[in-house]
Amino acid sequence: MNPITVKEIVKATGGTLLMGKPSDVITGVKHDSRECGADDLFVAIIGENQDAHKYIGQVLENGCRAVLVSREGEWLKQAEALGAAVVLVEDTVYAMGELAKYYLDTLNVKKIAVTGSVGKTSVRDMIYYVVNEKYRCGRNLKNFNNFIGLPLSIFQFDDSLEVVVLEMGMSDFGEIDRLASIVKPHIGVITNIGVAHMESLGSREGIFQAKMEIAKHIAGDDELPGTLIYASDSEFLTKERTKGNYDQISVGEKGKDDYIISSVDDFGMDGIKFTLEHAQEVRQISLPLPGRHNAINSALAVAVGDLLGVSPEEETDGLAAADLTGNRLKRRENGSICVIDDTYNASPDSMKSALRVLEHSRCDGKKIAILGDMYELGEDSDRQHFGVGLFAGGLKIDTLIAIGTHARKICEGADGGNPQTAYYEKKEDFYQDKDRFIENGDIILVKGSRGMKMEQVVENILKQ
């Protein structure tokens, strides 16, 4: 982070300087008291279970000399004695976003924002690796994509960067609007409109409207026109429904798309190969990442790279080097069996994509899917779980094991199809029974929503 003064913090946040010198400088922003150092601004966040104001005394004792607060307390005497700067605001989370907006505006960078129901972290990572072949590029820390994580990621950037790519997550209306207002991207990317967060958004139409909040904040400049890039579908992400005061670029498998994907060869965990056509130029792309869905994801990254002047050779090298964040279709082995660890999260679309990867993967034994509950599907939950099972039933896999409360419907959907099925309400019940399903040479997909903690299943399998 480049240095900024307390005076700038007060101006950016609209806060009040209760004490301290306006000329004091900070070079970092932290919300975790355990990580806060002498040159950091500590942001005291009031969460559902914790009020970080109670740690202010501790961070001051550890050397921190600037705090952003939303209420006063006994620690003010300690701050005054130490000469610390105290900035009072109404809402520290909102103020941190305003400070991130101000700070990002001080950097001379091209800004790319990514959202979507599924695949946004993968697309963000692919864009990063493609663009980083030509420019010094920054991206979100880990999966930090909300009101707290996105600003914290921005504070990691400095003058050495030329391009930043920022993922934006959401679970309700107005969240993308707020995040996009902080970033004000030159390029907005929407990966798809799925059914994740149906519980709070009500319908796919609602999800589309929430994702499109990114569009109102797209702002180009003389060097780079404002552009919305999206993976086209026939219902929501179309030229007509996404039009606005910016350029549009569509990616898909139809002849009318700007980037046309065809001839996709799926080699399971060994990756994919496909043809990509754009502006009468045709290229063959081989991707070491598994999953047919990554043809669309990588084409979105190529479209961004083209706008920024990245060469086809650099784009190919970037995609080959891409290392995706988190447990997304990661190969893990213990010498005798192979696990496809896709436990980061789950939605109906990503479940189906992962099942396709399992079907096309090579192995000497059986192909086994262990699937957990998918959350936040609202009244559509039973139908979506049943639909995943129905899809799995038509694939060439040997065994489907469902774990959780809602996952019973996955088994019901798959019954009568190709795989043998089994259902367990709890992971512990499966552990007692696992040896009758798993043998040397098998390949096993494990996937479920984050709250299911399906990574525990992975560890249990690998330790056998």
Task: Walk me through this protein's architecture.
It is a single chain. The chain is α/β, with parallel strands linked by helices. The chain folds into three domains: 89 residues, Udp-n-acetylmuramoylalanyl-d-glutamate--2,6- Diaminopimelate Ligase, Chain: A, domain 1 (3-Layer(aba) Sandwich); 215 residues, UDP-N-acetylmuramoyl-L-alanine:D-glutamate ligase; 133 residues, Protein-Tyrosine Phosphatase, Chain A (Alpha-Beta Complex), CATH 3.90.190. Helix 5 packs across helix 11. It is globular. The mean pLDDT is 95.
Short description:
It catalyses: D-alanyl-D-alanine + UDP-N-acetyl-alpha-D-muramoyl-L-alanyl-gamma-D-glutamyl-meso-2,6-diaminopimelate + ATP = UDP-N-acetyl-alpha-D-muramoyl-L-alanyl-gamma-D-glutamyl-meso-2,6-diaminopimeloyl-D-alanyl-D-alanine + ADP + phosphate + H(+). The protein is of the alpha/beta class.
Write the CATH fold name of the largest domain. UDP-N-acetylmuramoyl-L-alanine:D-glutamate ligase
Output the structural class. alpha/beta
First-to-last CA distance: 45 Å
Q: How many structural domains? A: 3
CATH class of the largest domain: Alpha Beta
Percentage of residues assigned to helices: 25-40%
> Ranges with pLDDT <50 over ≥5 residues?
none
Question: Globular, elongated, flat, extended or rod-shaped: what is the shape?
Answer: globular
Sketch the major β-sheet. Answer: 9 strands, mixed
Catalytic activity: D-alanyl-D-alanine + UDP-N-acetyl-alpha-D-muramoyl-L-alanyl-gamma-D-glutamyl-meso-2,6-diaminopimelate + ATP = UDP-N-acetyl-alpha-D-muramoyl-L-alanyl-gamma-D-glutamyl-meso-2,6-diaminopimeloyl-D-alanyl-D-alanine + ADP + phosphate + H(+)
Family: Belongs to the MurCDEF family. MurF subfamily.
EC number: 6.3.2.10
Function: Involved in cell wall formation. Catalyzes the final step in the synthesis of UDP-N-acetylmuramoyl-pentapeptide, the precursor of murein.
